[in-house]
Specification:
CATH architecture: 4-Layer Sandwich
Helix content: 25-40%
Bound molecules: aspartic acid
Number of strands: 13
Structural class: alpha+beta
CATH topology: Glutamine Phosphoribosylpyrophosphate, subunit 1, domain 1
CATH superfamily: (Glycosyl)asparaginase
Number of helices: 9
Shape: globular
Radius of gyration: 21 Å
Number of domains: 1
Distance between the termini: 67 Å
CATH class: Alpha Beta
Order of helices and strands: HEHHEEHEHHEEEEEHHHEEEE
Length: about 350
C-alpha cells in the first residue's frame, strides 16, 4: 500500500513530457506518388487531359501531405492518397479501371507497413469501391496477407467497406480502349456490361490517340515524422488482360514493398516482368545489403535490368532516411513528390525534372 502511494506521488510530481523521446518527431515527412507509366507523350495528350492529370496528382499529394503534416502515419497517408486516385476516373484504379478481355473490371491492390512489415493485398475484386482500404483491412482484420475474387469482396462487405455494382467502375474511354485492343488481337468483343450507359455516337474528347500503351496504375510511398515508411498500389491491371489474371501490384515484393530496414517501393508497368524480377524487393535489397543509394538501386532494376528486356514501367521509392527516388524506362510517368518544408513537384514527361 505504502509503495503504491509512493508510486502515485512520483507519478503526480514527475513533469509530464509532451511526448516520450521515442515518439518525438525525428524525421521530416516525405511522399511520392505515381499515376502510371507508359507511352505518355505531349503529342498524344490534349491540354485538357494534361491539366486533369496534374490536378489529379496534386489532389492526391495534398491528401497525403495533410495527413503527414498533422503527424499522421505513413500508412494513413498512403491510404488517403490512393482513395482519392481510385475515385478519379482518369486513373486506372477503382473507378476508371481498365477492362479485362471478358468486359469486367477486376481490381488489384496492396499496402505494406515498413514499421511492422505487415502487409495486405487483394486481387480480382469487382465490387469494392476502394480496393486499397480492403487491402488494409486484410492486413489489419484478417490473419492473411492476400484475398482474391468474390471472397475478397465478401470480406470487404463484412468489415463495412463500400460496395458498388460492377457498372460503377465503367468508363467510356476504357471501354473504347478494350474494344480497340481486342480488335487488334482479333479477339471477340464482349457485350457492354449491364448497367453501363448507352454507347455514345462518338467519343474522342479525352485522348487524340488510344491509351492502350499506358499503365495507369496508381501508387504512393510515404515517410512519416516517426521515421516509418509505407507503400501502396492500386490498379485495374492491363487492358484486355485475360480475366482472373493477377498482376504485380498486389504481389508483395513485386509491385509493392515496404521495410524500415531499407525502403518502400510502388511500381507500375507490365506486371509480368515486375513479378519475375521481384522489382520492389530487389530495389530495397540493393539498398539494404549493397548499401546503394535509393536512386541508384531504382535505376539498376528499372534501367539496367528491365529496359533491355522491354520490361516497360517505373517505380517510386522512399527510404527512412528521407531519400526519395523515381525511375522509369517509358516515355512518361505521372508522378509527384514533396518533402516537409519543400515545394510540390509534379511531372508527366521524361524531360521534366
Ligand atoms: N502493373 C500493372 C499490372 O501489370 C499495370 C500498371 O502498372 O498499369 O497489373
Amino acid at each position: 500500500m505504502q509503495r503504491l502511494l509512493v508510486l502515485m506521488l512520483v507519478m503526480m510530481t514527475t513533469p509530464v513530457f509532451a511526448q516520450s523521446p521515442a515518439s518525438a518527431p525525428t524525421h521530416k515527412w516525405a511522399v511520392v506518388i505515381h499515376g502510371g507509366a507508359g507511352v505518355i507523350e505531349r503529342s498524344s495528350m490534349t491540354p485538357e487531359a494534361e491539366k486533369d492529370y496534374r490536378a489529379g496528382m496534386a489532389e492526391a499529394l495534398h491528401a497525403a501531405t495533410a495527413v503527414l503534416d498533422r503527424g499522421g502515419s505513413s500508412m494513413d497517408a498512403v491510404e488517403a492518397a490512393i482513395r482519392i486516385l481510385e475515385d478519379n476516373p482518369i486513373f486506372n484504379a477503382g473507378r476508371g479501371a481498365v477492362f479485362a478481355a471478358d468486359g469486367t473490371n477486376q481490381l488489384d491492390a496492396a499496402i505494406m507497413d515498413g514499421k511492422t512489415m505487415r502487409a495486405g493485398a487483394v486481387a480480382d475484386v469487382t465490387r469494392t469501391r476502394h480496393p486499397i482500404s480492403l487491402a488494409r483491412a486484410v492486413m489489419e482484420k484478417s490473419q492473411h496477407v492476400m484475398l482474391s475474387g468474390p471472397g475478397a469482396d465478401a470480406f470487404a462487405a463484412s468489415v463495412g467497406l463500400q460496395q458498388e455494382p460492377p457498372s460503377f467502375f465503367f468508363t467510356e474511354r476504357r471501354w473504347e480502349s478494350l474494344v480497340q485492343e481486342l480488335k487488334r488481337e482479333h479477339l471477340p468483343i464482349p457485350e457492354r456490361p449491364a448497367g453501363a450507359p448507352p454507347a455514345p455516337a462518338h467519343d474522342t474528347a479525352f485522348f487524340e490517340t488510344p491509351d492502350n500503351h499506358k499503365y495507369g496504375t496508381v501508387g504512393v510511398v510515404a515517410l512519416d515524422r516517426s521515421g516509418n515508411v509505407a507503400a501502396g498500389t492500386s490498379t485495374g491491371g492491363l487492358t484486355a488482360k485475360r480475366w482472373d489474371r493477377i498482376g504485380d501490384s498486389p504481389i508483395i515484393g513485386a509491385g509493392t514493398y515496404a521495410s524500415n530496414q531499407s525502403c518502400a517501393v510502388s511500381g507500375t508497368g507490365i506486371g509480368e516482368y515486375f513479378i519475375r524480377y521481384t522489382v520492389a524487393r530487389t530495389i530495397c535489397a540493393l539498398v539494404q545489403y549493397k548499401g546503394m543509394t535509393l536512386q541508384a538501386a531504382a535505376d539498376e532494376v528499372i534501367q539496367k535490368q528491365l529496359a533491355p528486356i522491354h520490361g516497360d514501367g517505373g517505380v517510386i521509392a522512399i527510404a527512412p532516411d528521407g531519400q526519395v527516388a523515381w525511375s522509369f524506362n517509358t516515355p512518361g510517368m505521372f508522378r509527384a513528390r514533396m518533402t516537409e518544408g519543400g515545394t510540390a513537384q509534379i511531372g508527366i514527361y521524361r524531360d521534366e525534372p
